[in-house]
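Help wanted!
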Amino acid sequence: MSIPTAAAPDLTAQDDQSGPPTPERGESLPARVIRALLTQRIVLLAVLLVLVVVYFMVLGATGYLTAAYDFDYLSAALINAVPLAMLGFAELFVILSGRGGIDLSVGAIVSLAGMIFGFAYGRWGWPLWLAIVITALVGAVLGLVNGLLVAYIGFPALIATLATYYAYKSLAVVINNQRPISTKPIQNLYESTARSVELPLIGSWIPNVPKGIFLFLLPTLLVVWLLLARTTYGRRVYAIGTNDIAAQWSAIGVRATRAGAYALSGLISGLVAVVTVGQFASARPDAGVSGNGMALPAITIAVLGGVAITGGIGRVSGIVLATVLIVWMNAGIRLAFEGNAGPQYQLLALGLLLVFAALLNGFALRRYGGVG
Amino acid sequence: MSIDVVARDETPASGSQPPAKRHRVLAPPVTGQEIVLICVIAVLWVILGFATPAFVSAGSIQPLLGAVAPIALIGIGMTVVIITGGIDVSVGAAIAVCSVITAKLVLVQAGLSLPVAVLISVVVGGLLGLLNGVLIAYGRVHAIIITFGTANIFLWLSLKLFNSTTVNNIPDTLAPLGNGAAGRTLGVPNSFLITVVLVAIAWIYLRHTAGGRHFYAIGGDQLAAELAGVKVRQRVLTAYLLTGLLVGLASCIVVAQGSNLGQNVGSGKELAVIAAVVIGGTSITGGRGSVLGTVLGALLVQTVASGVTQLGWRSELSDLFVGVAIIIAVGADLIRERARRKR
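Answered by r_m:
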């Protein structure tokens, strides 16, 4: 067993601030563009995003869509990006931490923490800030259980979070006898989270934006970015994900760092629970696990955003772009098909996008040696 | 990396024999995990038998075995997939595709016979598995991502075929596979008998043939297997194809269980199958596992589910116990594995 000494240069290569992989000297322009598209996930996502928006706008202009696909509509659709992007961040921490990191339980945590929030705010009449703090803490504790199982006892992440997915899902249903909580204060919550508002100063020039974006998504985005790109803890997460033996030799507390990633994932899921309760105006016991659940889309977002499933590679910006791409694509599909066909084609588009992204990752890895 | 490989290839020392004298290539026929599972299931049955005498009646055990059958059948394929170091989370959606085709197109609309229906379902399942296999073996991407993607695509396909309605008035062509009197031989559900036969074949194949050992070799160390002359891609492809074929067969059993088919058929089944496999002692990192354990895992999960309802508890509580069962079963396996490495 040799101590891998290559870990240090590897780490700097994945720095959020680092530029594109240095292009080979004398590469022609088209070759450079292709290289950028394949190796820089955010470039590809940005191009896809523009294509999707232009495509649907052209469809809208020719009268093919059932309603206008304009900036107001796009802005209103962003409310769906709040839970999706936040859970994407949750998966980002966990997948980055390596050793097959994945969190299948985020949807179940959203359900269970949402019920706790329903009790605290809707039933017991706690002040809103306290209810939110408690909900986030409950989420963090639920996530920490995953972290302890994975980091300290050595469970494979897939199995540990599969088990807690079952357990939390069941508890969320049993805790209030399968009934949702939708008392007056909970119903009023819709106003303060999901409603679109006009921004001060510049508001009259741009469409109204859902409040949840400012109250939940942007603060979380900022904190997650600072944590990953500007703190020691963030560097440690990248380090253990890249090579946990090298990290161990560098005197990084691998176990604590990894357990922390799962706890953070739970914490974010707790916040998503608050958003979801506000959006539905009701604390539903199956909020995070009904249908396909929330874990699947969150993992999809992470993979699409360029997070390597093997750990150590991934950026916040990729998650944000991937979320916006999916949300605006889904918004367009909803207008292009009538009735149930819309949500169905959203599944197809999501599936194709995921397979395409995965194949592209594999190809870029072989051709250029990596995706950033 | 190298630590892992060495540890995995280390064979369990058998009892008091000095390990140097007789090097055991195969794991013992019944592993520790399986003995633990058999004991746990036996204890559960005894406890449930005392708590609710109705539990040990034929009327309760027959549907239990019938419910185990589809999970265990798909579990055979999933075990092979996981032994190679992969995973398939698209089986739930694949069940939906196979069962809606079988129920709606083959039975209700075309009114075909049982052998034809089973054949079509198996072929459809095989095609879905083939798609997964080709993408994973030749695209060389992580199995969990590809199968998440194909799961979405399969789900779209099934919803499209359902066309926003449930399938009603399914003729009882498939009754020999169902839960009724026609579906039993000597009091045992036919679906369970089929499962037992296929599990026995898979058990012998995986344990005693070169082809079967190849799957373990790939899961242990893919590169080493490749260098040793194993056709890795072909084997990986076969594993997903096999899973797809078994999904097709299992879907027939699912369709046979009622005269209606809801759009949510198969939803969550992928997790149930994976749970059965990992409870059965198959290592999620590949290279170790047995189909016998998987059947016992499926039996344990179904016993818990059936026990919870028969005790008059909320049926949702059974998920909690399934979660706990996974933790305990895999935890016990982890502890034994650690002890094995120390030796």
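OP: Thanks! One thing I noticed: The CA atoms of residues 138 and 233 of chain B lie 7 Å apart.
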